[in-house]
Design goal:
InterPro entries: Creatin/AminoP/Spt16_N, Creatinase/aminopeptidase-like, Creatinase_N, Pept_M24, Peptidase_M24B. It comes from Peptoniphilus gorbachii. Helix content is about 30%, strand content about 25%. The strands form 6 sheets. It has a 6-stranded mixed β-sheet with strand order 4-3-2-1-5-6. A 4-stranded mixed β-sheet has the order 8-9-12-20. Strands 7-10-11 form a 3-stranded antiparallel β-sheet. It starts with a helix and ends with a strand. The mean pLDDT is about 95.
């Protein structure tokens, strides 16, 4: 159990006048209890009361071989697990339910307690998870350092004649050599016109002279995700491609400069986006500027024009502006992760962002 995280969650519950909370998200349960359970169709629920009472509803199909710092409520496939859980829920009227709990379980609880008020409690859990503790910060640094090393190793392979699928497979081999068994998302290894599609699905395209190559990669290390994008060029880069690259690089740097406590997440988006717009390419920057990251590659709290939440010390999120000119076959994205510090941010990725032409 991570007592400090539970204490922070209880504090946040009290600030929001919420007496009790049901959490079903396996990532959030792992975050709090340090146990991994993927329940599938079965009910899994962590019940937390503001007085510190902590109970875990768990199916007998998931036996645990270590102590869990919560009272366990066991049930089997012929029992009504929600009814069992209900016997421990206290009298307070309002109950927070996270957004991941299947409706069939929530509806059953509503049948049992028709007079209670049910609200979305996910914002409270997300707010606590968003601010990383020292253990998490160090794990994210380690994960990103490995990602840097992997990026440096994969870049030379863009000129080895591999198609996109083969390049992705090579990337996964490199991850395994660094002790990373699982990617944090399906990587994007895109040549030329494919690079101008922000979420291109890897195919059999091969690289050609002058192509830009978008490498959007990340792995899982000790349960924490990395994520980074670099764009390189095969053999040469046209003046047009160089222009686009330098605009995206400057937008990335401006976004990072705005990533500091007291600013809003929307300020980071504005800093990057307004520069691209100033240069006349606003309509070609077609996605948000970033996303929060930690146990999951994409966590709650994005870097967008509509997220006006204030940036807090300990947050980690990406800054990844891009310009995509599909008709010209030019796509450039540059992405770094930033850890918010007292006076700004620490950039977790160290791979150079200077324009790179990969030569045979």
């Amino acid at each position: 159990m991570h007592k400090n995280r539970i204490d922070r969650l209880i504090k946040k519950m009290k600030e929001n006048n919420l007496a009790h909370l049901i959490i079903s998200d396996p990532y959030a349960i792992f975050y709090l209890l340090d146990i991994k359970i993927e329940p599938g169709e079965r009910a899994l629920a962590l019940y937390l009361h503001k007085d510190g009472d902590l109970k875990l509803l768990i199916n007998e199909l998931f036996p645990q071989d270590k102590d869990i710092a919560a009272d366990l409520i066991w049930y089997n496939d012929v029992e009504d697990g929600i009814e069992k859980l209900s016997k421990y829920i206290k009298e307070d009227e309002v109950i927070g339910i996270d957004k991941f709990w299947p409706a069939k379980f929530l509806l059953r609880l509503q049948e049992i307690f028709p007079d209670k008020k049910y609200i979305n409690g996910s914002d409270i859990v997300d707010a606590v998870r968003r601010v990383k503790d020292e253990e998490e910060k160090n794990l994210m640094r380690e994960s990103s350092a490995i990602n840097d090393a992997v990026m440096e190793e994969i870049i030379p392979w863009v000129i080895k004649g591999l198609n996109e699928k083969e390049l992705s497979a090579k990337l996964k081999e490199i991850y395994k050599a660094h002790g990373v068994e699982e990617v944090s998302f399906e990587p994007i290894t895109a040549y030329g016109r494919s690079a101008a599609d922000p979420h291109h699905s890897t195919d059999d395209t091969c690289g050609k002279l002058g192509n830009c190559v978008v490498l959007d990669i990340g792995g899982m290390y000790k349960n924490y995700a990395s994520d980074m994008t670099r764009t390189v060029f095969i053999g040469e880069a046209s003046e047009r491609a160089r222009e686009i690259y330098e605009i995206v690089k400057e937008a990335n740097l401006r976004g990072i400069a705005a990533a500091k406590p007291g600013n809003k997440m929307s300020d980071v988006d504005k800093a990057a986006r307004s520069y691209i717009e100033e240069k006349g390419y606003g309509k070609y920057f077609t996605h948000r500027t970033g996303h929060s990251i930690g146990l999951e590659c994409h966590e709650a709290g994005d870097v967008s024009s509509v997220n006006d939440s204030e940036i807090e010390v300990g947050q980690i999120f990406s800054v990844e502006p891009g310009i995509y000119l599909l008709d010209e076959g030019i796509g450039v994205r540059i992405e770094d992760l930033v850890l918010i510090t007292e006076d700004g941010c620490e950039v977790l990725n160290k791979v150079s962002k200077d324009l790179k032409i990969v030569q045979a």
